[in-house]
Amino acid sequence: MDYFLKSRRLGFRYWTNEDFPLAQALWSDSKVTGLFGGPFSPEMVRARLTNEIRMREECGIQYWPIFLLQDHQHVGCAGLRPCPAMKNTWELGYHLHPRFWGQGLATEAAFAVLAHAFSSSSVEAIFAGHHPSNEASRRVLGKVGFEYVGDEFYAPSGVVEPIYVLRRQEWCSHQR
I want to staple 12 with a disulfide (CB 3.0 to 4.6 A). Which of 5, 7, 29, 118 is the partner? Predict the structure, then answer.
């Protein structure tokens, strides 16, 4: 499999229209998407996949599908999307199949995405948020260096969620 980005255990590639079965297995799972509006119907998954492909064409970024390098199992997705509310800022996101939770893969994926973002673009900051009951995501964001900056209503979940920012300058100073 051709990966444009690799970490110690993960390979990242781009979504294609042929990946609908992978997208369906991920985004129709209520354990994966239950805290942000899911599970999603096949039509909603198709729209989400189409949007991810369009995002790459328009912006060069997406929530890329990720795979174990060892055996190419689909782990989930991790990546970036534009953050319209904040200038020169992208949003970090990751969705993993439940069987891969608790193995450090979300943290590994987040580190790889952040390193890629700050080394291959001029983006100044990365934004992230999580459902207040998603303690695992809070821990991942802390491990990779995000700073809590407040709370914001997130329409897909219907709740006020904690939000975080990691600025290029902070990332670069921590990577030395």
Answer: 5
Phi, psi of 146 (to 5 degrees): -70, 150
Is 0.85 surpassed by the pTM of this model? Answer: yes
Compute how many other C-beta atoms are within 10 angstroms of the C-beta atom of residue 60.
Answer: 10
**For the structural domain made of 5-174, what CATH number should be given?**
3.40.630.30
Backbone angles phi, psi at 161, to 5 degrees: -120, 150
Residues 69/9, Cβ–Cβ less than 8 Å: yes
Distance CA 14, CA 5 (A): 10
C-beta separation of 147 from 128 below 8 A: no
- Give per-residue pLDDT as tens, 121-140: 889 999 999 999 999 999 99
Asked whether the beta carbons of 174 and 145 are under 8 A apart, the reply is yes
Express the helix, strand and coil content of the chain in percent, nearest 5 each: 40, 30, 30
Domain boundaries, the chain: 5-174
Q: Quick one: average pLDDT of 14-43?
A: 94
Count of Cβ atoms closer than 10 Å to residue 138 Cβ: 18
User: What are residue 14's phi and psi, to 5 degrees?
Assistant: -95, 145
